[in-house]
Amino acid sequence: MDKLAKASNTIDIIKKYNFTFQKRYGQNFLVDTHVMDKIMDAAQITHDDHVIEIGPGIGSMTQYLCERAGRVTAVEIDKDLIPVLNETLKDYDNVRIINEDILKLDLNKLILEENNGKPAKVVANLPYYITTPIIMGLLEGHVPVSRITVMVQKEVADRMQAGPGSKDYGALSLAVNYYSSPHIAANVPPNCFIPRPNVGSAVINLDVYDKPKVKVGDEEHMFKLIRAAFNQRRKTLTNSVSGALTLDYSKHDITEALEALSLSGNVRGEALTLEQFALLSDRLLSDRNNLD
Predict the structure, then answer these.
(1) Model pTM above 0.90
(2) Most buried residue, 191, 256, 257, 275, by most Cβ within 10 Å?
(3) What is the rounded CA–CA span in Å between residue 288 and residue 194?
(4) How large is the average pLDDT for residues 71-99?
(5) For residues 252 and 238, what is the distance between their CA atoms, to the nearest angstrom?
(6) Residue 62 near residue 95, CB atoms below 8 Å
(7) CA of 111: how far to CAs of 41, 73, 102, 118, 140, in Å?
């Protein structure tokens, strides 16, 4: 079949089905075969892989995935696109189309059923407005995936791979780096989409660790600490965390724990590495338990 990722073919399908783009779903169809090739190179799909595609649209990327993967599960929230996908993917016998909201779908159960629990790969052109909930849902939910290759807003991709001290570094950077190794594979300009978004995009690879990058006693507590530290990033970590409603630490508690780790009581959250946040989390909990 001729590639749907060519702009003229995408336009033909849109006209044939009188399809209307839904703003609530953040729909932007990729119309560049060179970018599709870059995504496939980054994802490293083989015939042994089960791939979950989030938001297949009219099936442009799904075609590429079906030609490379053993099995593809395409999860599309827009019911109006299901008849389109049934036509555009009719020549492929290794694809299953599911009309569901990815945020409500039990992916652990799906992978168990579709791939006997073996880790799958996720590939997607993600709607900008729910990029973070989707990615964090996959990572925090410990969904068995070995690699996540997604098109996201360039600004979000930069935040995912940012390191300490940079303006892009924050809670998302730390969360992504705790669970995976991120790498931007390609930058994609707005003219590669229909309709054109207002911002640039990027393809980012997340190679998911078998075990998180650092050891921490209480994962949930560490991420509460991280979110509090960046909630008001211009403040010192001591002031940000002591004022957090989700935690119950005094300025003295935090300063004492920081100094025990040879860190200044005036340090900001953006200066701490993931390893230091893990140590600080463990230290705060240890100090509290010793007082109980």
Answers:
(1) yes
(2) 257
(3) 54
(4) 97
(5) 8
(6) yes
(7) 23, 10, 13, 7, 16
